Amino acid sequence: MKLQIFTTGGTIDKIYFDALSEFQIGEPVVGELLARFNVGFEYQVEALMGLDSLDMTDDHRRQIQRAVEASDADRILITHGTDGMVETAKWLASIPGKCIFLTGALQPAAFSRTDAVFNIGCAIGGLQSQPPGVYIAMSGLVFAADQVVKNHAQSRFEARD
Predict the structure, then answer these.
(1) Which end of the chain offers a freer environment for a tag, N or C, measured as fewer CB atoms within 10 Å?
(2) Class of 2-159 per CATH?
(3) Which whole-number Å values give the CA distances from 109 to 11, 95, 153, in the listed order?
(4) What's this model's pTM, rounded to 2 decimal places?
């Protein structure tokens, strides 16, 4: 499997600065995680942006869409902020012939109680087993991107009613 990974920022890449008492988007973590786990597939990481998904605009989503379309890989992983993930997935729905997974984290990857590693692993498993389409891997589940919502009250993703 050859995997193209695009990073866009979001909580998964946030770091905490004690002196500032705030979170900021840091360097993408996914490449470091995959190297540490010595994965048995080729991958390439490209940082497209470093934004909180609440700050994403249609121009940012168009940039993601163009990057996915231009990639010669047929397996794409996008790390993304959770609040805008479903909206970005809509922008990717018309891209044929690629298996596209979006994932992120509800807690930064730098935290010991993060869900980042679990979500990335779930997405990579899905990339190897799902047909072309757009999916979201969060909360231990794989969702068709048009069948999922973020439940803010429960801090998880769920199937849309």
Answers:
(1) C
(2) alpha beta
(3) 8, 29, 21
(4) 0.91
